[in-house]
Design goal:
This protein has about 290 residues and is mainly β. It has helices at about 35-45, 105-110, 175-180, 215-220, 245-250, and strands at about 5-15, 20-30, 50-65, 80, 100-105, 120-125, 135, 160-165, 175, 190, 210, 225-230, 255, 270-275, 285, 290-294. Helix 4 packs parallel to helix 5 (about 245-250).
């Protein structure tokens, strides 16, 4: 059944004054809408500026036919999470220790330190930096390369993105022919192989998809901004050399490994972000990788 919301509202401006509305009715998606989402919609729809406190009053959900396009509280750019969840005991890279995630200060212990009814939790994490979905910067490979504290925000935030699909069921090697004939200059090039379906299984670590040295050189020469992959490693790990890491990081092209959910992205028309903390002397670290689909 179609739903509408009836409500009153009061909106106050940070520079003084305000406006009120009574008996407004709007179409909604689903069976309900929060006061905050409704206030956000009114502010956006009326193109209001300098908005301070907002109040939604006397809200009622009605079963009525829609009069216009329904209110959608999620309208605007769609955010898609491309990161795996990090949890206690998770093995990301075979041979490296799993993270230990525990309480430094538990809620029970905190109750002895604070006033009645007040409690906190402070967590403690011990892990290697190659955990979960992570970003590699030049210091990871080169002693005098830029570390995380020296990488500019523009290098890993809101990059124009493109997805290149190379299903692992067809081939494990992402070759030069796979990355040709695309608009990739200054873009985040995300290689979708489908390997993420094996995440956190024994299959994930062995015989995984990878980018070839020739393809990496082409990506470098095209001056891409970043290269990501939904696989265990962007390099072929059957040997001890790492030509893709070497080629890309030497050119200050960042790498993101262990992505997921790339199948949810369009081929292009999105921006990509993978933001790590600002650590000195660290060359790789977990990120919350995401895409903003326009």
């Amino acid at each position: 059944m179609e739903k509408r919301v009836a409500f009153d509202f009061e909106i106050f401006f940070t520079n003084g004054g305000g406006i009120k509305g009574e008996g407004f009715r709007l179409d909604i998606v689903g069976d309900d809408i929060s006061d905050q989402a409704l206030a956000d919609y009114i502010v956006a729809d009326m193109r209001l500026l300098m908005v301070g406190e907002t109040k939604i009053l006397n809200k009622q959900i009605l079963t009525e036919s829609h009069k216009r396009k329904a209110v959608d509280a999620t309208r605007g750019p769609l955010l898609i999470d491309l990161s795996h969840t990090i949890e206690n005991g998770l093995v990301t890279y075979k041979g490296l220790p799993a993270p230990i995630i525990c309480d430094y200060l538990s809620r029970a212990e905190s109750r002895t330190r604070y006033a009645p009814g007040t409690e906190f939790q402070i967590g403690k994490i011990e892990m290697v930096t190659n955990t979960g979905t992570y970003l590699d910067c030049p210091f990871h490979r080169f002693e005098h390369g830029k570390d995380l504290s020296e990488i500019t925000l523009e290098s890993f935030t809101d990059l124009e993105g493109i997805v290149i699909s190379v299903p692992y069921t067809d081939t494990l090697a992402v070759t030069l022919d796979h990355v040709r004939n695309y608009e990739i200059r200054r873009r985040a090039v995300l290689i979708h192989t489908g390997w993420a379906e094996h995440w956190n299984t024994s299959t994930y670590y062995e015989h995984h998809p990878y980018v070839t040295a020739e393809a990496a050189a082409y990506l470098r020469d095209c001056n891409v901004a970043l290269v990501g992959i939904d696989s265990h490693n962007i390099d072929n790990t059957t040997g001890n050399d790492r030509p893709v890491h070497t080629t890309l990081l030497e050119a200050d092209i960042l790498i993101v490994e262990h992505l997921c959910n790339l199948h949810l992205l369009p081929h292009e028309g999105f921006t990509f972000s993978a933001v790590p903390p600002k650590f000195k002397g660290v060359g790789t670290f977990p990120v919350r990788a995401m895409a903003k689909v326009r």
